[in-house]
Specification:
heterodimer, A: 665 residues, mainly alpha, 3 domains, two-stranded antiparallel sheet, 5 strands, 73% helix, globular, B: 492 residues, 2 domains, 19 helices, elongated
Chain lengths: 665, 492
C-alpha cells in the first residue's frame, strides 16, 4: 500500500518537473510549481516511509516494460523505507529553502532547469532505492548523476563551476563502470537482473563474492565519497547552489552507502576482512576528511570535507556491524548497523542544515570566504542559532542527534573489542573507537572555528557588516531542520524504532534492539536534566544580576581601548596550532613572514592545503592511465578506411567468438 | 535516597576545596603561608554578589557559555560514581555520555571566547581546540581500558569489576592508564605543565585567557565548573587507584575524600616544580658536605658509607634536573640515574666494604696530613672552587649556580684525599670522588655531553677498582698491611 504512495510521489515529482520545464520563461511560476510539487511529494513520501517502517511489511510490484533486459520491478523493505525517509525529509526541507534561495536569481538566470532537475534528482534518488532490478537501478542511478550534474553547473558562467562539473561527471562515470561490471557479474551468475535472483544465489563460485565486494566498494564508494575517491566532492558541493549542496551532501552520497548495504545482502555471510576494510576506510576517511576541513576557508568546501568525515563515521558503523555479523554477535552487529544508519539520517539533517546556513551566509554577504566574515550573528540571528545547533550536532554533542548515532557506534565498537571475536577484529574495533574520538575532537575544533569566525566577533569586511537575514522560506527550512536535530537528540528511542526494520533487512537479529531502548530513554532523561540545569542556572543568574550594576564596555584588550576587527583571530590563525603538527603529513604549504624588529610594519601568515588523495593517489593514477592509453595512439591514423577496417575486424571477431569460442552455442 | 543525597552533596559542595588545597600546597612549597583552604568558597560567594561587565561585541552566546559549561559538568558529575562503585543515576553507555558532556562544556567555552572578538581569547580558544582534539583520543583509550575488565561501557559495572584482583592480572595496563589519566587531568583542567591557571594575561595561557572577559556571576560559574571538572577527573583516578567498594560506607567516604585531597596535593606538587630548583641546590650542598665528611672521617667504613650516600645523591641529581626542565631526554636521564645508583651507591661500596672486611683494616691511621688540617684545607678548596667557578664564568649556562662550584670542590677534595692518605681504600674513595666531581660537572653540560663519555669514565673507574682490589690483596699478603707508602720497597 505504502509503495503506491511512494510511486505517487515519484509521478508527482516527474510531472511537476515537466510542467516547470513547459512554463519555460515564466520563472516565478516554474519556481512555485516545482517547489510545491517537491514539498508535496516529500511530505507524501516521508509519511509513507514512516508508515512502512512502523508496519514493517515487505511490498513489491512487478510489471514488464518494453525495453530490452530487465523489467520494472520495485519493492520496499525496511532498508529502502529508511533511506526513502532520509531522502524525502532532507529534499523537502531543501525544496522549501530553494524557493527562497533561488529568488535571488530571478531575472538573472532561467530557473526552470534548476527546478526541474531538482525534482528529477529527488525522483531518481527515490527510484534508486525502490529498484529491485539491475537495469532499472542503473538507469535511476544514471538519472541521478546526470540531473545532479546539471544542478552543480547551475552557475555555469563561472569557470570553477564548469571545472567542478566536469570532475563530478567523470568521477560519477568511472564509478558507474564498476557498477555495470558488478551487475553484469550478478546477472551472469543468477541468469537475470532481478534482485530477488541475486539474493537467492545459493552458492557463489570461488572469488565471486570478493570480486563483487571490491567492485561495489569502488563503484558505490565513489558516490559515497570514501577516501581517496572523494576528490570530486569538495569541488562539486561548493559549486552547486546551496539547497542542491544540501541534498547532494545530505542524501545523494548516502545512496552510495545504500548501494553497498544492498549489495552486501546479496553476498551472504561476510568474511572478517570486509568488516576490517570498512573500519579502516572509515577511520581514514574520517580523520583525513576532518583534517582537510580544518584547513579550508571556503565555508562550503569546509562542509564538503566534513561530508567525507561523516561518511567515514558511517563506514565505521557498517564495519562494526559486519564484524558482528561475521562472528555471529547480533548485539555488536545491531549497534554498528543502527549507529551507521542513524548517522545517515542525522548527517542528512545537520549537514542539510549547515549547507542551508552557509547558503544564507552567501545570500547575506555574497562571500563564502570564512576570513572575511565575522559578527554575522547580530545581523542574521536565525541563521546563527540554527548554524550553531547544526555545528554542535555534527560534533556529536549531547543533547543533539549526532550524539545518538555516534554513541551507538561507540557502544558497538566497544562491544566488538571485548567480545571474543578474532584478534584482528578486536583490534579494528579498538581502532574504530579511538578514531571516532579523534574525529570528534577535531570536528569540534573545526566547527568552533567555522561558527566562531563567521558569526561571532566583529565583521571583518564591509560586506559582512552589511549582511542581511535570509528570507522566510530559508528561515523556515533551517528552523525545522534544527528542530529535528534537537528532537532526535532528546528522544532517540523514537527514531531508533525506525532504524530497527532497516537493520532487520540487513539480516540482524532484532532481539538486540530491545536492550538498547532502555539506554535510549536514559539519554532522554539526561538531556532533560541538562536542559533543566541550564534553565535553573539562567534563572539563578537573572536573579543574581537583578538590581545590580550591569555595564557594557568594549572588549578587554589589556588596556588598549581602540580594538579593530583586524586584531581578531582569523580562521587561518585558529587552525594553525592543529595544522602545524600535521603539516608534513598533509601537504600543507605554510608561508610565514613573521614581524621583525622593534617596530614591525608587516606580518603575514598563509596556508594552502592540497588534497592529499588528489595529489598522491588520483593524479598519479590518471597520469599512469594516460601514459598507458597513449600507446594505443598508433591505432589513430585519421583515415576513414582504416577505421572501417577496425569495425569489420571487430565484428567478425565477435561473431567468431560467439559461435565458435568457449561460449559457443 | 541516602545515596542520592550523598552523591549530590559531594558533587556540589566539595570541589572548590580542591582548588584551595592546590594553592595551599604550592604556597607551602614556595615557603609562604598561602591563602586559607576555604578561600575558593569566599571567592565564589564574592563573585556571585557582584554585578557584571559585558563587551559590546558579545551576544547571548557569551552569556550562555558559562551556564551551559557548568550545566554540562554537573550532569557529567551526576553520571559518574563518586564515593561508591555506582552512581545512583548510571546507565549502560554512560561512559560515553560523560566524555561527550565534557566536550559540550569545552565547545561552548570556546564559542563564548570567540564571541568577544578579542585576539587574546581567540588565541586561547584556538589552543584549547588543538589540545582538546588531541586529548580526546587519549581520554577515550583510558576510558576503554577502564571498561575492558567488565566488558561494559558503564561506570558502575566497570568499577565493580575493577577491585584489586584485576590489578594483579592487568596491572601494567591499568598503571599506564592511571598515568595517562593523570596527564589528561592536568591538560583538561589547564594545570601546569600544559597551562598555568594563575596568570590571566600571558601569551602562554590557554584556558584562563579564554575567560578573560567574564565577570561577576558568570565568572563564578566558570570557577565553580572548573573545580567540578577537576573533581570529576580526580574521581576517575581514585576509582582506578584506590579500593573503593560498593555501597555507602565510612571507609569509602574516607578513601574517596582522602584520594581527592591527595590528588590535589599531587597537582600542587607538580605545579611547584619551579621551586623544585631548590632541591637540586640542596642536593649539591649535600654532596659538598659529604666531601668534607669523608675528608674528616677517621673510620674507613664511615668513608665508604659516605661515598655510597654521595653516589645515591648524584643518582637523584639528573632526575631533579630533568624535572626542572633540562633538555636531556628522559631515557638518557633514567639510564644515567640507574647506572650511577647501581655502580656508585651499590656495587663499588659493596666491593670496598668487602675489601675492608678481608684485610681487617678499620681506621686511617697516621695520614700524611692530619685530619683536622685536611678538613681546613678542604674548606679552603671549596672556597677556591667557588672563586674558580665565578672566574671561569662557567655557571652562566648551567641550570643551577651551585653545579660548577660543587663539581670543582668534589674534584679538588678528591685529589686532597688521594695525596694525603696512605690506605689503598681511601685512595679508591679519592678516585671515586674525582669521578663524582666529573659527573656533577657533566650535569651542567648534560645536553651536550654524550652519555657514552660518562659511561666510559665509569667503566675506567670500575676497572681501576678491580685493580686496586687485587693490589690491596697483594700488599696485604706481602706486608700484612695496606699502606701504599711501603710500595717503594718494591723498587729494585
Amino acid at each position: 500500500m505504502m509503495l503506491y504512495f511512494i510511486l505517487f510521489a515519484e509521478v508527482l515529482l516527474v510531472a511537476t518537473a515537466l510542467l516547470a520545464t513547459l512554463l519555460g520563461r515564466l520563472d516565478r511560476a516554474a519556481l512555485w510549481t516545482g517547489t510545491i510539487g517537491a514539498i508535496a511529494a516529500s511530505a507524501v513520501g516521508a509519511g509513507a516511509a514512516v508508515c512502512s517502517l512502523l508496519s514493517t511489511e515487505h511490498e513489491s510490484l512487478r510489471s514488464s516494460w518494453p525495453i530490452a533486459l530487465g523489467e520494472f520491478h520495485v519493492g520496499m523493505d525496511g532498508l529502502s523505507a529508511f533511506f526513502l525517509l532520509c531522502v524525502f525529509v532532507v529534499s523537502g526541507l531543501s525544496a522549501i529553502y530553494g524557493a527562497g534561495y533561488l529568488r535571488a536569481y530571478l531575472g538573472k538566470q532561467r530557473l526552470a532547469p534548476a527546478v526541474a532537475f531538482f525534482n528529477i534528482l529527488i525522483a531518481s534518488m527515490a527510484m534508486v532505492i525502490l529498484a529491485r532490478d539491475g537495469v532499472l537501478f542503473l538507469l535511476a542511478w544514471e538519472a541521478m548523476s546526470i540531473s545532479s550534474f546539471f544542478l552543480v553547473t547551475f552557475e555555469n558562467e563561472r569557470d570553477e563551476v564548469r571545472r567542478a562539473g566536469i570532475t563530478y561527471l567523470v568521477a560519477s562515470h568511472v564509478g558507474i563502470v564498476f557498477l555495470f561490471a558488478l551487475f553484469a557479474l550478478f546477472a551472469r551468475q543468477s541468469g537475470s537482473f532481478n534482485f530477488d535472483g541475486f539474493a537467492d544465489l545459493a552458492s557463489h563460485p570461488e572469488g565471486f563474492a570478493t570480486m563483487c565486494f571490491v567492485f561495489s566498494l569502488i563503484g558505490f564508494g565513489t558516490k559515497a565519497g570514501f577516501w581517496p575517491v572523494h576528490i570530486w566532492l569538495p569541488d562539486a558541493h561548493p559549486a552547486a547552489p546551496s539547497h542542491v549542496s544540501a541534498v547532494m551532501s545530505g542524501v545523494m552520497i548516502k545512496l552510495g552507502i545504500y548501494g553497498l548495504l544492498r549489495t552486501l545482502t546479496f553476498l551472504g555471510p561476510p568474511p572478517a576482512w570486509w568488516g576490517i576494510t570498512f573500519v579502516i576506510i572509515g577511520a581514514v576517511s574520517g580523520i583525513a576528511g576532518v583534517l582537510h576541513a580544518l584547513a579550508q576557508h571556503d565555508l562550503k568546501r569546509l562542509l564538503a570535507y566534513h561530508s567525507v568525515e561523516n561518511i567515514g563515521i558511517i563506514a565505521l558503523g557498517i564495519g562494526v556491524g559486519l564484524l558482528g555479523q561475521t562472528y555471529g554477535n547480533s548485539v555488536v552487529s545491531f549497534l554498528g548497523y543502527a549507529g551507521g544508519l542513524l548517522h545517515v539520517l542525522n548527517h542528512g539533517l545537520f549537514k542539510g542544515l549547515l549547507f542551508h546556513g552557509a547558503g544564507s551566509v552567501i545570500h547575506g554577504t555574497g562571500s563564502r570566504n570564512v576570513n572575511t566574515q565575522g559578527g554575522l550573528y547580530k545581523r542574521m540571528p536565525v541563521t546563527g542559532v540554527t548554524f550553531l545547533i547544526g555545528s554542535m550536532a555534527i560534533c556529536g554533542l549531547p543533547p543533539l542527534n549526532g550524539f545518538v548515532s555516534e554513541w551507538l557506534i561507540y557502544l558497538g565498537a566497544f562491544r566488538g573489542s571485548t567480545s571474543p571475536l578474532s584478534t584482528a577484529a578486536g583490534i579494528s574495533a579498538v581502532v574504530g573507537f579511538v578514531a571516532l574520538a579523534l574525529i570528534g575532537g577535531l570536528a569540534a575544533a573545526c566547527f568552533v572555528k567555522a561558527f566562531g569566525i563567521v558569526f561571532l566577533g566583529e565583521p571583518r569586511s564591509e560586506a559582512a557588516a552589511k549582511a542581511h537575514e535570509a528570507p522566510w522560506p530559508m528561515k523556515v527550512a533551517m528552523i525545522v531542520g534544527a528542530a529535528l536535530c534537537f528532537v532526535i537528540g532528546v528522544w532517540p528511542a523514537g527514531v531508533v524504532t525506525l532504524v530497527g526494520p532497516a537493520t532487520k533487512a540487513l539480516g540482524v537479529d532484532i532481539q538486540a534492539f530491545n536492550s538498547t531502548l532502555g539506554a535510549m530513554s536514559a539519554i532522554s532523561y539526561f538531556a532533560a536534566l541538562l536542559i533543566g540545569l541550564i534553565v535553573v542556572l539562567v534563572l539563578l543568574r537573572k536573579a543574581l544580576l537583578h538590581g545590580r550594576e550591569v555595564t557594557t564596555e568594549s572588549t578587554w584588550g589589556c588596556g588598549y581601548s581602540l580594538p579593530t576587527a583586524r586584531m581578531q583571530y582569523t580562521a587561518s590563525s585558529f587552525a594553525e596550532p592543529l595544522l602545524t603538527p600535521f603539516a608534513s603529513a598533509l601537504h600543507v604549504e605554510i608561508h610565514r613572514d613573521g614581524p621583525t624588529g622593534c617596530f614591525p610594519r608587516t606580518g603575514k601568515y598563509e596556508e594552502h592545503l592540497q588534497d592529499l588523495a588528489g595529489e598522491c593517489v588520483i593524479v598519479p593514477a590518471i597520469q599512469w592511465f594516460l601514459r598507458t592509453v597513449a600507446r594505443l595512439g598508433v591505432l589513430q591514423q585519421g583515415r576513414i578506411q582504416l577505421y572501417l577496417v577496425y569495425v569489420l575486424v571487430t565484428l567478425v571477431a565477435l561473431l567468431v567468438w560467439e559461435f565458435a569460442g568457449p561460449f559457443g552455442s | 535516597m541516602v545515596e542520592i543525597v550523598t552523591h549530590l552533596a559531594l558533587l556540589l559542595l566539595f570541589p572548590p576545596l580542591l582548588l584551595g588545597i592546590i594553592v595551599k600546597t604550592k604556597a607551602l612549597f614556595a615557603g609562604r603561608v598561602g591563602a586559607p583552604l576555604l578561600q575558593p568558597y569566599s571567592d565564589l560567594w564574592k563573585l556571585l554578589k557582584k554585578g557584571a561587565v559585558y563587551s559590546r561585541t558579545t551576544t547571548w552566546i557569551f552569556r550562555a557559555g558559562p551556564i551551559i559549561a557548568l550545566a554540562s559538568v554537573l550532569t557529567a558529575g551526576v553520571v559518574l560514581p563518586l564515593a561508591s562503585t555506582s552512581s545512583p543515576f548510571g546507565f549502560a553507555g554512560d561512559v560515553i555520555l560523560f566524555a561527550y558532556l565534557l566536550a559540550l562544556g569545552r565547545f561552548v567555552t570556546m564559542a563564548a571566547a570567540l564571541d568577544t572578538g578579542s585576539p587574546f581569547e581567540g588565541m586561547g580558544a584556538s589552543r584549547e581546540a588543538a589540545f582538546s582534539a588531541l586529548v580526546e583520543p587519549a581520554l577515550f583509550l583510558v576510558l576503554g581500558i577502564i571498561c575492558l575488565p567488565a566488558a561494559s561501557v558503564s561506570f558502575s559495572n566497570a568499577w565493580a569489576a575493577l577491585p584489586w584482583q584485576h590489578w594483579g592480572v592487568a596491572h601494567p595496563c591499568l598503571l599506564a592508564a592511571s598515568a595517562a589519566l593523570f596527564i589528561v587531568l592536568l591538560t583538561e583542567n589547564s594545570r601546569i605543565p600544559v597551562d598555568d591557571p594563575n596568570t590571566h594575561l600571558e601569551l602562554t595561557m590557554i584556558h584562563e585567557v579564554m575567560v578573560l572577559d567574564h565577570s561577576g556571576p558568570d565568572f563564578a560559574f566558570i570557577l565553580y565548573g572548573a573545580s567540578i571538572k577537576l573533581f570529576l577527573f580526580g574521581s576517575l583516578l581514585i576509582h582506578l587507584l584506590l579500593p573503593i567498594s560498593a555501597g555507602i560506607s565510612w571507609q569509602n567516604a574516607a578513601l574517596f575524600l582522602g584520594g581527592q585531597v591527595g590528588m590535589a596535593i599531587l597537582v600542587g606538587i607538580v605545579e611547584s616544580r619551579r621551586t623544585m630548583n631548590l632541591y637540586s641546590d640542596f642536593l649539591l650542598l649535600f654532596v659538598v658536605m659529604l666531601n668534607l665528611y669523608i675528608v674528616s672521617a677517621n673510620r674507613l667504613t664511615a668513608c665508604v658509607k659516605a661515598s655510597a650516600l654521595q653516589g645515591a645523591a648524584l643518582a637523584l641529581l639528573p632526575i631533579i634536573m630533568w624535572w626542572n626542565g633540562s633538555p636531556t631526554p628522559l631515557v638518557h636521564v633514567i639510564l644515567m640515574a640507574v647506572g650511577t645508583l647501581a655502580f656508585k651507591a651499590i656495587v663499588i661500596p659493596i666491593m670496598l666494604a668487602r675489601a675492608i672486611r678481608n684485610v681487617d683494616a678499620r681506621r686511617e691511621v697516621e695520614p700524611f696530613v692530619s685530619l683536622h688540617l685536611s678538613l681546613l684545607l678542604a674548606a679552603l678548596l671549596v672556597g677556591v672552587s667557588f672563586w674558580l667557578a665565578g672566574a671561569l664564568e662557567l655557571s652562566a649556562g648551567a641550570p643551577s649556580r651551585l653545579l660548577v662550584p660543587a663539581s670543582f670542590s668534589t674534584l679538588l677534595i678528591g685529589f686532597l684525599v688521594l695525596v694525603s692518605r696512605k690506605k689503598a681504600i681511601t685512595q679508591v674513595i679519592g678516585y671515586l670522588m674525582i669521578e663524582n666531581g666529573v659527573f656533577v660537572f657533566s650535569q651542567s653540560v648534560a645536553a651536550k655531553l654524550p652519555f657514552v663519555v660518562e659511561l666510559g669514565v665509569l667503566l675506567d673507574l670500575l676497572v681501576a677498582i678491580f685493580v686496586m682490589n687485587i693490589v690491596i690483596h697483594q700488599i696485604n699478603r706481602e706486608f700484612d698491611h695496606i699502606n701504599v707508602d711501603k710500595l717503594d720497597l718494591l723498587k729494585g
